[in-house]
Amino acid sequence: MNKLNNIFLVGPMGSGKTTIGRQLAKSLNREFVDSDHEISHRTGADIPWIFDIEGEAGFRERERAVIDDLTQRQGIVLATGGGAILAEENRKALSSRGLTVYLAASIEQLFKRTAKDRNRPLLQTDDPRARLEALMLARDPLYRDVADLIVDTDDRSIRSTVEYVIDEITKLQSS
Question: Could you tell me the domains of the chain?
């Protein structure tokens, strides 16, 4: 399997995985898939409801099955949920079945981008900024470990991020 056939986007909530993923897929003429949307589609329930009923552990098990399934496809751009990298099985699937791009962003940017979003169960807390900081402390090393490419999205537009990723893929294809 050629790792460049698939592009998997990882990173924290609010880093732009879905927005950038859609544009990247369009630019590369590939199918775009969002693992959270796929979980919602398969269950007929939204993510906050799954968290409420099954807890985070139940959601993560559903996420693991969807990631395993989706990463076996060919020619896709996949936006993963922010916590997808928590499971070692997901990290192995992402690393071995595609080019994994970590869309990094500062806590400040993540906080701004997610402040009004009520569909993020882990941020429904009295101090969402502190929660973001704790999540990043735990997850950043995992994102970095799985990444073939790290892109800081703080000072980049969607277009420039997509162009940068395509340029990097082109370099990898020619090497």
Answer: 3-169 (3.40.50.300)
Run of H or E residues at 11: none
The pTM (predicted TM-score) of the whole model is 0.90
Residue with tokens 């999540």: 135
User: What CA–CA distances, in Å, run from 56 to 9, 117, 130?
Assistant: 21, 18, 19
45: its two tokens: 């329930």
- pLDDT score of 85 more than 60: yes
Token couple for 77:
């751009």
CA 138 to chain centre: 16
What six digits make up the tokens of 93?
């699937």
pLDDT at 36 over 60: yes
- How far is residue 70 CA from its own chain's centroid? 13
